[in-house]
Amino acid sequence: MQIINDPAEMQKIAEKLRLQHQYIGVVMTMGALHEGHLNLVKLAKAHAGTVIMTIFVNPTQFGPDEDFHRYPRPFEQDAALARAAGVDYLFAPSAEAIYPEGYATMIDPGPIATRFEGASRPGHFSGVATVVVKLLGITRPHLAVFGEKDAQQLTVIRRVVADLNIAVTILGAPVTRESDGLATSSRNIYLSSDERQQATVLYRAIQLAGREITAGRRELDTIAAEAEALVRTEPDAEPDYLSFVDEATFEPITQATPGKACRLVMAVRIGKTRLIDNWRFECT
Ligand code: PAF
């Protein structure tokens, strides 16, 4: 595995790989790699002959009061995990290399970026969309794999790639979960052992909703309220949002339509740590 820090060098290598007819897959991360990221690599390797991983803690997607400065950056450990997973190139630029002096362009992904995660974290999706488009331009992949845990991010990225005519296939990868259902996340390491136990309530809320939908209930707003009440039974859990949404627009929906899928999305603070999760439901 080759480690590259310079965007121009990465771009040159990607161009060369393309000339050699290599099918390139990219997995973009902010590091602090866990099983979920390694599953993204596995999926990329199943489709692509060459896999590039990017590690970049992107400052433009963090709000001023968020965890940019304390975000874990175990680079040596990440590089070892990436190598063992079969990554061919690890692109790890500095913030100055991605946003040099005079940098000005930010992408506005439109209304979807203002809902839920976008409402709670103003500017977040503009930062994500901007860095993703830049990293696509640098790594020149045919395929990019993103986790469905960040379901709204994935929808935003699909929108941006379609709207800007970027020739890349976007593949969503299923959420990786611990044995008790907690979605893997780089932020799980912030949780104390008591908070870690309480954090399973996100998955328990999903299960509750699943049981109600399977029982044929259609009033999604009431089901969401019941799921939120369950979350609140944990002493350190504070829901930021918990709602059913239309998959494509992330507009809230209150009533299930038979034959149409919907997604339950939630963000919950457990102590000081903000966790997100989601589940796609078919309504029969
Ligand atoms: O999902 C993430 O880790 C980040 O939002 C991404 C896509 C790497 C952009 O910084």
Features of this protein?
Rossmann fold; 284 residues; binds pantoate; Pantoate--beta-alanine Ligase, Chain: A,domain 2; alpha/beta; 10 helices; six-stranded parallel sheet; three-stranded antiparallel sheet
Describe the fold and architecture.
With 284 residues, the protein is of the alpha/beta class. It is built from 10 helices and 9 strands. The chain has helices spanning 7-19, 35-47, 75-85, 95-98, 117-120, 124-139, 151-163, 193-198, 201-214, 220-232; strands at residues 2-4, 24-29, 50-55, 89-91, 143-147, 169-173, 237-245, 261-270, 273-282. The model has no long low-confidence stretch (mean pLDDT 97). Bound molecules: pantoate (PAF).
What is the domain tally? Answer: 2
Radius of gyration: 19 Å
Give the termini separation.
47 Å
Look at the structure and name the CATH superfamily of the largest domain.
HUPs
Small-molecule binders here are:
pantoate
Share of residues in strands: 15-25%
- Main pleated-sheet profile: 6 strands, parallel
* CATH-level-2 architecture of the largest domain: 3-Layer(aba) Sandwich
Low-confidence stretches: none
Subunit structure: Homodimer.
Binding site for ATP: 30-37, 147-150, 184-187
Enzyme class: ligase
Family: Belongs to the pantothenate synthetase family.
Please give a quick description of this structure.
By secondary structure, the protein is α/β, with parallel strands linked by helices.
